[in-house]
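Quick one, T. Sequence first:
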Amino acid sequence: MVDGQPGHIDQIKQINAGAVYRLIDQCGPISRIELSKRAQLAPASITKIVRELLEAHLVQETEYQEVGSRGRPAVGLILDTAAWHFLCARIGRGSITLTLRDLSTNVVAEDTVDLPAQSELPFLQRVIYEIDQFFNRHQQKLERLTAIAITMPGIIHSSSGVVHRMPFYADVRDVPLGPALSEHTGLPVFLQHDVCAWTMAESLFGASKDSQNVIQIVIDHNVGAGVITDGHLLNTRRHSVVEIGHTQVDPYGKLCYCGNHGCLETVAGLDNILTLAQQRLPLSPQSLLHHQPLTVENLCAAANMGDRLARDIINGVGYNVGRIVAIMVNLFNPDKILIGSPLNQSCDILHPTIQTCIQQQSLHDYSKDLVVESTHFHNHGTMPAAALVKDALYNGALLVQLLQG
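Structure tokens:
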């Protein structure tokens, strides 16, 4: 018991430092007295934590006028973010987006470059090369680098930094991306499934920041879900997300890249619904989808104009997704359902179908007041990766490393 005490004390210090940093970030300028009240820490503890943050140039003092006060300005604390940078990356279908941000998540530099699915070079080598090239291109803008955060689809073990499998990249098999990149750069690396990270971003900065229990459904080339329960992301240190995309909905259906047949992703993923639309077009001669490129944007536009085929396909996605979400509602009893998808361009069609499934197939007490709405962010940027770094600062894990130099 005694042997474990120093580690326990260090963990408490980490949690307290993260809590103070988070309050300064979200409420600053804020006084030390107010920090003590909100963090429920003794003034002496606040003084010590703030002193360390000031000495590390992670926070700074500023004068501000308190609400209702006409006297001298108070001295408050705000973040000192300009000299601290971190790299965010999102690996998608055929490309990687790289964004240099400061600790306020403001963009300093951003590039999107090709990362073809097929190449003679291994996936790991290509990712490291593109990150090196990004740093070379923007070296004059670089300040102190604190971390690298990467999001991507696939089967990922976030705590070990290993990518087991990815869609579109057939050569990805148990790739130690996190450890390799950390060894190459000397920086902590945070790796997470893009849906999971996106859910964190919505919770920290977006559509669910005022909710403690949320289910976020993503319908894109891949289909997945993230769950916030009691204000915390579910399964952050296990195999990525709640894998609804690989829940079987048709045992005789199409082969999925995960090795199973008839996964939800094979009937609700964007590529698959566009394939379905193409197959059904000859049977719908009056459809607005004829004589134009078959894209998600055109599918949604046609549906919004009343096209029967387009509406039927989007309703089909809503039904297949909705019946899985109804099960999740019974499991997690959320306050809100978020939908992140290009199909939100037809949210007046998609969302009611999902909501109807939830109301018909889940417990009435759980579903009667549920709201289904669109996410604030999109998955194609790097704000989800930025949320990984913010979370590591707020829980103190990364913050302690910065304080220790």
